[in-house]
Amino acid sequence: MKQIGAVRSSFAPWNDPASVPLVRFEGVTKRFGDMTAVDDVSLSIYEREFFALLGPSGCGKTTLMRMLAGFETPDAGRITLGGEDLAGIPPHKRPVNMMFQSYAIFPHLNVEKNVAFGLRMEGMEKSAVKARVEEMLALVKLEKLGARMPHQLSGGQRQRVALARALAKKPKLLLLDEPLAALDKKLREETQFELTDLQVELGMTFLIVTHDQDEAMVLADRIAVMDHGRIVQTGTPGEVYEAPANRQVAEFLGDMNIFEAVVDSVEPPMARLSGEGMKFFVQDDDCPAAGSKVFLSVRPEKMRISLDPPPAKTPNVIAGEIWDIGYLGDWTTYLVEIAPDRRVRVAQANATRHVERPMSWDDKVFVSFDPDAGVVLTS
Amino acid sequence: MTRGPSAFNRISIGLGLAFLYAPIVLLVVYSFNSSRAVNVWAGFSTRWYETLFANDQLMAALWMTLRVGALSASIATVLGVLAAIALVRGGFFRGRAVFSGMVYAPLVMPEVITGLSLLLLFVAIGLARGFWTVVLAHATFTLSFVTVAVRARLMTFDRSLEEAAQDLGSPPWRAFFEVTLPNIAPAVAGGWALAFILSLDDLVIASFTSGPGSTTLPMRIYSAVRLGVSPEINAISTLLIGSVAMAIVIYGVVRARKTA
Ligand SMILES: Nc1ncnc2c1ncn2[C@@H]1O[C@H](COP(=O)(O)OP(=O)(O)OP(=O)(O)O)[C@@H](O)[C@H]1O
Ligand SMILES: [Mg+2]
Question: Which domain, by its residues, includes A324?
Answer without folding.
Answer: 255-377
